């Protein structure tokens, strides 16, 4: 049976999905990146190989996320796409009339405006973590509770407690002050959720027309306190898809299926055996011109198989012949 693989490697989590020939989800993997993207990709591939029946054949593979070039080089991806394109593709597939996609991940957040099934505008926050999942993780750790408990208790809190959400340092000071004033923990954690929602909307949502249907994706969508806060801030219903945490990977798989069906790509996937191959990454500064680009290379058994990072295509590409110089 034909199948299509999507890989989304972020700074906090790595997601993999496999769709069948009818674009139905066959398997999905969600695991921490842990600062080791190569190991996370390989762990995910091993888990997929154990779940998939032998009858499934990967006809195409695609990579997305902040480490998409690395993932593409390791697995032999037919497509390497940005997160905006993949998140939008998955949202439109599950909610065909979607007009706004909100995606909040571990260390960045996105707002995608969709009109007539196409991306009309988007904005990303990649500078500050105050409007992302790591903001909540940090505060949950300070309160000595799991993120699951924080989500549960936020549903019972009221909206009277205001927490500054523009900075994690200010938020922590504000939390201490509110605790000293005698506010309940439930009210404080919901105040945190409201702070994140306000920060997200005032940052990536500033000047954007947020129209329903609104789809909320990403790992933070697990947090029902954030869903509640966004719903109250916008005054709109928030749709959380069934597989919201791996939508980037699903979107990548959808796009590579479309590309293979049109005859453009296919057949580059190296197989699940790459999960046992030793890969090494390195970087250097190119001195070919005054720009001084930082070039990243991936080596497999001492051979350069991929490189990127330059403003020109001097070091871009995949696969070199053993014995050639490292330029690819």
The CATH class of the largest domain, by name, is Alpha Beta
Chain oligomer state: single chain
If helices are DSSP runs of H or I spanning 4 or more residues, what is the number of helices?
9
Task: State the CATH architecture of the largest domain.
Answer: 2-Layer Sandwich
Dominant shape: globular
How would you spell out the order of helices and strands?
A: EEEHEHEHEEEHHHHEHEHEEEE
What is the rounded distance between the termini?
A: 35 Å
Number of strands: 14
User: pLDDT under 50 segments (min length 5)?
Assistant: 319-328
> What is the helix content?
25-40%
Give the biggest sheet.
Answer: 5 strands, mixed
Structural class: alpha/beta
What CATH calls the topology of the largest domain is: Nucleotidyltransferase, domain 5
Mean pLDDT: 88
What strand line-up does the widest sheet have?
Answer: 3-2-1-4-5
CATH superfamily of the largest domain: ATPase, nucleotide binding domain
Please tell me about this protein's structure.
By secondary structure, this protein is an alpha/beta fold. The chain has 3 domains: 2-87 and 247-276, ATPase, nucleotide binding domain (Nucleotidyltransferase, domain 5), CATH 3.30.420.40; 96-240, ATPase, nucleotide binding domain (Nucleotidyltransferase, domain 5, 2-Layer Sandwich), CATH 3.30.420.40; 279-318, no CATH class. The protein has helices at 37-51, 68-75, 83-94, 133-142, 147-154, 168-180, 185-203, 224-234, 247-261; strands spanning 2-9, 13-20, 25-32, 57-64, 79-80, 100-104, 109-115, 118-125, 214-217, 238-239, 279-285, 294-300, 303-308, 317-318. The strands form 3 sheets. It has a 5-stranded mixed β-sheet, with helices on both faces. Helix 4 (133-142) runs antiparallel to helix 7. The radius of gyration is 21 Å and the shape is globular. The model is unreliable at 319-328 (pLDDT under 50).
């Amino acid at each position: 049976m034909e199948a299509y693989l999507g890989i989304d490697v972020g700074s906090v989590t790595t997601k993999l999905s496999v769709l069948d020939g009818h674009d139905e989800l066959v398997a999905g993997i969600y695991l921490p990146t842990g600062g080791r993207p190569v190991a996370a990709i390989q762990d995910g591939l091993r888990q997929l190989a154990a779940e998939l029946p032998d009858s499934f054949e990967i006809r195409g593979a695609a990579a997305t996320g902040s480490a998409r070039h690395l993932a593409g080089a390791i697995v032999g991806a037919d497509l390497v796409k940005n997160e905006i394109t993949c998140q939008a593709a998955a949202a439109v597939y599950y909610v065909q009339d979607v007009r706004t996609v909100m995606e909040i991940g571990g260390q960045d957040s996105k707002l995608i405006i969709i009109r007539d099934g196409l991306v009309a505008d988007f904005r990303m926050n990649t500078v500050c973590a105050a409007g992302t999942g790591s903001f909540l993780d940090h505060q949950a750790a300070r309160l000595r509770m799991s993120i699951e408990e924080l989500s549960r208790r936020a549903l019972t809190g009221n909206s009277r407690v205001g927490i500054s959400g523009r900075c994690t340092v200010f938020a922590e000071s504000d939390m201490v002050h509110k605790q000293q004033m005698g506010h309940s923990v439930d009210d404080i954690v919901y105040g945190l959720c409201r702070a994140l929602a306000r920060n997200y909307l005032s940052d990536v949502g500033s000047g954007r027309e947020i129209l329903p249907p609104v789809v909320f994706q990403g790992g933070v969508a697990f947090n029902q306190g954030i869903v509640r806060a966004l719903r109250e801030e916008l005054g709109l219903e928030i749709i959380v898809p069934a597989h919201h945490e791996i939508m980037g990977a699903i979107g990548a798989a959808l796009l590579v299926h479309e590309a293979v069906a049109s005859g453009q790509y296919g057949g580059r996937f190296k197989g699940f055996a790459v999960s046992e191959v030793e890969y090494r990454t390195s970087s250097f500064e190119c001195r070919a011109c005054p720009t001084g680009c930082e070039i990243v290379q991936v080596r497999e058994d001492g051979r350069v198989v991929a490189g990127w990072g330059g403003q020109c295509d001097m070091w871009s590409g995949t696969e070199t012949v053993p014995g050639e110089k490292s330029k690819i």
